[in-house]
Amino acid sequence: MRKFLAIFILAITALAGCSNTTPASSGIQEASEEKVVVDPNIIEKAPKGCPQKTTLEARSKEAGTVAFTTQKSWFVYRSADWGTLYFTNYEKFDPQNPFAHDYDIQDVTVYFDLKTKDKSALKAGIWNYRNLSENNDLSWLNVSTKKLSGGVFDDKAKVELTYIGKDYVCGKVASKDANSSLNGEFIAQYVK
């Protein structure tokens, strides 16, 4: 009986020890506890024809080099044939009242109008700077700071709209003169 009891206790001890061991890997990884950080400047489900984020940069003697973000990019609808794009590097911009801001020394705003001469609705296409023979009208590009509101005067400057919707307006800007430049893509929030 002692022999039986000793074997029984040994068997129970062995089974108890097995319950604390790690089972063999099944090849399935368990879910990680890591939190995913989402960049608020990236639009995960951007419409076709739009970048996922604004990459527009402005450079000028007064502004320095300024990179704009998606959160601070707006298209303000004026009428079917006219809209203004605004890009800022500061928080308190009101697209309904864009010139109400009191500039601090580091604040920069880029803005320009896109229009059609025949009053047709804006649509995807190219706006060449001051090209009088085309229907798409881009008559100025502006970089504003506390000290100066200056244009980018480049006869080869162009804005290309790749998407226009009631959610976003998207495109590209390329412009450079001796004193300043605008270059990059944008996905701007639509504001009516």
Most strands sheet: 12 strands, mixed
Count helical runs: 1
- Give the helix level as a range of percent: under 10%
Strand content: 35-45%
Span between termini: 92 Å
Total beta strand runs: 12
What would you say this structure looks like, in words?
With 192 residues, the chain is mainly β. It is 9% helix and 36% strand. The chain has one helix at 2-18, and strands at residues 57-60, 64-67, 73-79, 82-88, 109-116, 125-128, 136-137, 142-144, 149-151, 158-164, 168-176, 180-191. Strands 1, 2, 3, 4, 5, 6, 7, 8, 9, 10, 11 and 12 form a 12-stranded mixed sheet that branches. Strand 10 (158-164) and strand 11 (168-176) form a beta hairpin.
List the helices and strands and how they pair.
Layout: H1 2-18, E1 57-60, E2 64-67, E3 73-79, E4 82-88, E5 109-116, E6 125-128, E7 136-137, E8 142-144, E9 149-151, E10 158-164, E11 168-176, E12 180-191
Parallel strand pairs: 3-12
Antiparallel strand pairs: 1-2, 1-12, 3-4, 4-5, 5-7, 5-8, 6-10, 8-9, 10-11, 11-12
Salient structural properties:
mainly beta; twelve-stranded mixed sheet; 12 strands; globular
Q: How would you briefly describe this protein structure?
A:
This protein is mainly beta and 192 residues long. The protein has one helix and twelve strands. A hairpin with a 4-residue loop joins strand 8 and strand 9.
